[in-house]
What does this fold into?
Amino acid sequence: MHTQTTFQDDKAVLYLVSTPIGNLKDFSLRAIETLNAVDVIYAEDTRTSGVLLKHHNITTKLRSYHEHNEQERQEEIVRLLGEGDNIALISDAGTPLISDPGETLIKKVRDAGFGVSNIPGPTAIISALVASNLQTSPFTFIGFLPSKKNLKEKLLKDLSALPHTLIFFESPHRIHKTLATLYDVLGNRQTCLARELTKRYESFIHFTLSEHEKIPDLKGEIVLVIDGAKQQELSSHDMIEHVQLLIADGKSEMEAIKMVAKLRNLKKNTVYMAYKTQKKSDEPDNRE
It folds into this structure.
């Protein structure tokens, strides 16, 4: 166990600063104050972030941080922190690290002995969820689904029995194929498609997945919010079949049982006993 304080010593700090997801006015006073106070700001796309900083008269030095220069920038950031410079990491839109690079940076900064502080703000995940008219808790955020259909279907099968509202990011050019796959794997569930959140053309399309072919061509950032599996639908047979599917995908019996118990909010022993009982009944009777 190790406790690392952020502001109790004179060491420099890495700030994770949330930025507006669309409307430039959705920027907290503390976020603006922090970006004005740090020595360097790192952003995935300096062009996009430059518009935001100019709008709020923030003149702090801006540098890029993306997947193609991540390792180089991580070493640079740790060095600057060691020299006493406070650093901010921002996303193009929303909260840093959510479907954006930066997770390995946090570990390196903490391992080097420096504090990391989050400056909270807008996130498309919560904005879409609370306006979706679907269950807000519990929910599971997935991010972008894999582009390959077989990997996408495998992930969705693993999630299919989860009684949580599911939240995905998706791009306009993939949305129709993704909705078709969601319907094939998850069945006919209530869905909310949120697009252009906080912007002029913000809209919410409420539909069931069986209606996916009626969705028009869309532009802009998309968040999908989908109803979770209903508990009454999760029969003992479904539970055993779920274990068997995971085993077929390469999981061991105990791994599959643990996963099914967690996904269905059940006791591990309940799943274990049901699966073992079914397995025993399926074995051939060799008695004469």
Remarks:
- The longest strand covers residues 139-144.
